[in-house]
Design goal:
The complex is a heterodimer of chains A (281) and B (319). Chain A is an all-alpha fold. Chain A has two domains: 57 residues; 215 residues, MetI-like fold, CATH 1.10.3720. Helices cover 75% and strands 0% of the residues of chain A. In chain A, α2 packs across α12. Chain A is globular and about 75 Å long. Chain A starts with a helix and ends with a helix. Chain B is mainly α. Chain B has two domains: 47 residues, no CATH class; 240 residues, MetI-like (MetI-like fold). Chain B is 74% helix and 1% strand. Chain B is built from 14 helices and two strands. A two-stranded antiparallel sheet of chain B has the order 1-2. Classes of the chains: A mainly alpha (281), B mainly alpha (319). Chains A and B meet through α1, α3, α4, α5 and α6 of A and α2, α4, α5, α6 and α7 of B.
Chain lengths: 281, 319
């Protein structure tokens, strides 16, 4: 009896592995294909049958793609914008979250709901008015114009998330500091933020990935070539050099490196952040 | 700085003997103390998100003049009725709804499957989790180009698989040039990119279900299928509601994959999504009022669909 149960369990487990492996195959093959294409000489790009392992390996696509179209500038722009958006979002959301978690003031609940509306608005519907606002503030064609919009798009969700973190910190820790005469500002910096590192990490990761990925706003707000970010650069690169897939994917893989690094380093915060908040990466 | 100055002044006031001193000044003092924390964040939020949202409603009621907004002509709800009567807009709505109806169940079914498989004591769970999450973190532009390349008519991976390996088709299918077939890569991409996220959320929901319930049922002789049907599924309902609402919003707002693959509605504006049409109306034809009306219609639709979903699914839980 027990033997038959455990053998059927074992069979069930083998089945699970098989299904998971098949699923992983569907995930990995496209990525694998992207890497191998980026290493193929142009002549082999549309080879039949398509080769998952290139017959002839070359790094020419990388050196050409990276030297073309200001790719280095795009990469740098993306980095600057993403880091600035992360720092600013962390700073502003922490302050907001602290006020909503710890301070008492009139209209607190209503003001909080006003902020939460930002979590529900479909982002692309804002592009037209954002364009007009940015135009009148002379923020079109500037990296700052990208940063402020990215911060605005993230601040509601991240404040919501951080407020939860701050509320889970025991109040006694603050009360001791309050009695010693510390201001609320000092308490936030010295007591709350150091205890909220995991929460801050989640905010940083999601804002970084958002800024690194964002296409619609950058597509509209940036006209000047030298101010483009990577997603725009790569999309336009493809439409200009239509069949140079090797170079397109070489550029894509370089653009993927920071994402994979961030993900690999912060994986455990990541899973926690997603499952506690339902943030979309 | 201001907080430091304010404190002694209000302390004095609190010591005053007026009947309302304590009650009126304190909320204000509290408000200003909080304002230091709130103002910077709200300045950005109101200027670049909330303000634009309101502004957009106004734009949608005008024949908006992009060069000199003061010359814009008020047209009432003309932009809205124009959109509703426009066959291209209607086609875009159909395309967008179809995308949502295909990709949301696709993501939920596959994501649930992966979550159930990962919700066992098996080795390599962390590795699988990372693998399935890879498409989620990859920028949309990159995965879209990747799918475009795999679905190329001549020499694409998919045609080769279907023709030479599986023998399902005789000659190459031109996926990217046909107004219907072009949605195959777009839909598949939508599912492929979202399964990992759905699985992780579903897994978190599954792990919150006490194992004892399922164990007790299996001692009583319940089959795995009926355990899933009568224990897991009902307890997972809040998670499923959440997944459905978020995925439907995402589906209706799909944009990048369509823009890049159809190159903005090609052929003949038959393949637009609502948002690619909005983009074209606004930034190609410079019809800002019309574009704003389209985006408002979409926002209202998204909002109503979310409400209905939450209502319906909540009611079923109570049964």
């Amino acid at each position: 009896m027990t033997a038959s149960i455990s053998s059927s369990r074992r069979r069930g487990k083998a089945g699970s592995y098989l299904l998971l492996a098949v699923g992983s195959g569907f995930v990995i093959v496209p990525f694998w294909f992207m890497v191998s294409t980026s290493l193929k000489p142009q002549a082999y790009i549309f080879d039949i049958p398509p080769k998952l392992i290139p017959e002839e390996v070359t790094t020419a696509n990388y050196s050409e793609a990276l030297g073309k179209d200001l790719f280095g500038v795009y990469f740098l722009n993306s980095m600057v914008v993403a880091i600035a958006a992360v720092v600013l979002t962390l700073f502003l959301s922490s302050m907001l979250a602290y006020a909503f978690a710890r301070l008492e003031f009139p209209g607190k609940e209503k003001i909080f709901y006003l902020l939460l509306i930002g979590m529900m608005v479909p982002p692309v519907m804002l592009i037209i008015p954002q364009f007009l606002v940015a135009k009148s503030l002379h923020l079109l064609d500037s990296l700052l114009g990208l940063v402020v919009v990215y911060v605005a798009m993230n601040v509601s969700m991240q404040t919501f998330l951080l407020r939860g973190f701050f509320e889970s910190i025991p109040r006694e820790l603050e009360e001791a500091a309050l009695i010693d005469g510390a201001s609320r500002w000092t308490i936030m910096w010295r007591v709350i933020l150091p205890l909220s590192r995991p929460g801050l990490a989640v905010v940083a990761i999601f804002t970084f990935l958002y800024a690194w990925d964002e296409f619609p706003w950058a597509h509209v707000a940036i006209r000047e070539t030298a101010r483009r970010t990577l997603p725009i650069g790569i999309a336009l690169f493809q439409s200009q050099h239509l069949t140079q897939w090797g170079q397109v994917f070489a550029a894509s893989i370089v653009a993927l490196v920071p994402v994979v690094l961030v993900f690999a380093v912060f994986q455990r915060y990541f899973v926690r952040g997603i499952s506690t908040t339902g943030l979309k990466g | 700085m201001t907080a430091r100055f304010a404190r002694p002044a209000s302390d004095q006031r609190r010591r005053g003997t007026g009947p309302f001193e304590g009650t009126t000044s304190k909320p204000f003092r509290r408000f200003w103390r909080a304002a230091i924390f709130l103002l910077p964040g709200f300045a950005v939020y109101l200027t670049f998100l909330f303000g634009p949202m309101i502004y957009s409603a106004r734009i949608s009621l005008f024949d908006w003049n992009i060069v000199d907004p003061t010359l814009s002509e008020p047209v009432g709800f003309d932009n809205y009725s124009r959109a509703l009567g426009d066959p291209i807009f209607r086609r875009a709505v159909v395309n967008t709804v179809a995308y949502t109806l295909v990709t949301v169940p696709g993501q939920i079914i596959l994501g649930m499957g992966v979550a159930l498989l990962l919700n066992q004591a098996i080795r390599g769970r962390a590795l699988f989790r990372v693998l399935y999450y890879l498409p989620v973190i990859t920028p949309w532009v990159i995965v879209t180009l990747l799918f475009e390349y795999m679905f190329v008519g001549q020499g694409g991976l998919v045609n080769w698989l279907l023709r030479d390996v599986l023998g399902v088709i005789q000659k190459n299918v031109l996926w990217l040039a046909d107004p219907i077939l072009t949605f195959v890569p777009i839909h598949l991409l939508g599912i492929w990119k979202g399964v990992g996220w759905t699985a992780i959320i579903a897994l978190a929901g599954l792990q919150a279900i006490p194992q004892e319930l399922s164990d007790a049922a299996s001692v009583d002789g319940a089959s795995p299928l009926s355990r899933f049907r009568y224990i897991t599924l009902p307890l997972l309902r809040p998670t499923l509601v959440f997944l459905m609402v978020v995925l439907v919003i995402g589906g209706l707002n799909a944009y990048i994959s369509n823009l890049l693959i159809t190159d903005g509605g090609n052929p003949l504006d038959l393949t637009h999504f609502v948002l690619t049409l909005m983009y074209e109306a606004t930034f190609t034809r410079l019809d800002f009022g019309y574009g704003a009306a389209i985006s408002y219609l979409l926002a209202v639709f998204v909002f109503m669909v979310s409400l209905v979903q939450i209502r319906l699914l909540r009611r079923r839980v109570e049964l």
